[in-house]
Amino acid sequence: MERAEETGALKKAFEGCTGNGYAVDDSQVIPDVTTYLTPSFDRDALLFSVPVVFSRTPGREFPVDPKGLDGAVHVLIERIKEEAQKVAALAPLYGAGTKFPGRYDATIEPYTVIHSQDAIGMHLWHPDARNFADDKGVHFLVRGALPCPPTPGPNDDRQYLRDALLPLLDAMHAIIDTVPARLLERGAERSLDQKLLRERLNSLGLVAFIGDGSRSARRCTRHRSFFRVAGIKDGVNVPFTCPPGLSPLELELPVTKETVTGLGIRKREVFAVAGSNAQGKTTFLEGIIAGMDDHADGDGREMIVTVRGIETAEAMNCELAGSDVSMFFSSLPPGMSGTVGAAYGMGSGSMTMAAQVQRACARHSPLLIIDEDKAAPNLLVRSCLQGEEVTPLAELLASSRRNFNDTTLLFAACAMDTLIAQADRIMVLDRHVAGAIDRERFIAMLKDSLKKTAERL
What we know:
The chain has a domain at 3-186. The chain is elongated, with a radius of gyration of 27 Å. The strands form six sheets. Strands 15-19-20-12-21-22 form a six-stranded mixed sheet, sandwiched between helices. Strands 1, 2, 3, 5 and 6 form a five-stranded antiparallel sheet that branches. It is built from ten helices and 22 strands. A hairpin with a 6-residue loop joins strand 10 and strand 11. The longest helix is centred in the middle third of the chain and has 25 residues, at 154-178. The mean pLDDT is 91. With 457 residues, it is an alpha+beta fold.
């Protein structure tokens, strides 16, 4: 069949099914985007996508605030995924029966992110603009793959689709209609608590809150290989507890009214995450970044809530096109053109990172994150070989805090002692357990260490 005929056959396969509790969601039909029926490139499978709206039995409506409905939808999607390999009728969701089902099983990959404003996990099935709930019902973009059969004519094609897809939708509707209302309400409350707490951070004088018991360590899979979408790590995964030396906060969650304790990262402060190698510093920073997303129960990060609009600065060779690096450089190196206020050319790792830091401060970004492992060391602390035309970050923090405007600086460091000494608060990770050290005590330790190093030299 031609593409138009295939799409037409798909829509006709659902004719007369409205009495079953679902129907094609005409408002979401976009040919070749949300609605298609097409062979795979090797013609082994028939790929399908169709928007469907499911009803719930009267009395089983969503008794929740509409702002948290994505949490309820997440519960429904994950329940369908859990049942997918147990209920034969759900097999088309993950391409069972095709020659290469591994190509299509991302549809049933467990996913614990309820909502993100960024384009993460786009290939995974989760609440979004195509998968949502409203007063009309539950709207799902149903996608999957069927074995590609030899068919003699359009009528047989239509019957094949009905025989495969109507049982799929019947099974999905049965699950949607029987998930207990309390589970849906709990999912919605979890989503809404995070959203409303994020809105309150500014009034609390915070840019991030890390709840006690949070677990940021991740386990990647083939379909979830990025830390923001990855699931909770199995095995050793030490829960976070805010040490007394960092002034733990106690907050009441807006919806559930649960009392939670944890660490608050304050507006305009410089916060250091210090510690030896492989103690969880990067994992902690990644948890803060992931706090821009809303997470489901069991993700481990559902009580890490961060303002949106944060930025990171990393060392990389990058073409600069009028970048301002005047905070760090008083003159440009050979090979660059323009001025320190508008630099052009291929920037080194430190030059590019300088531009990122300065841009974040100029934008009044609420939070700037720097990880020593991904940074240019010569932009963080001074070397005895460094020229006076460069002012590293540690010296800027000591003499020119006003240049950072109202941006909070959060960084992880191990060997950058003179940078750590400029932090307002210092958290130390040891065996993945958080502790705290007073800034004055750290400075005394640093002086003693530098003295011993000089004596050894």
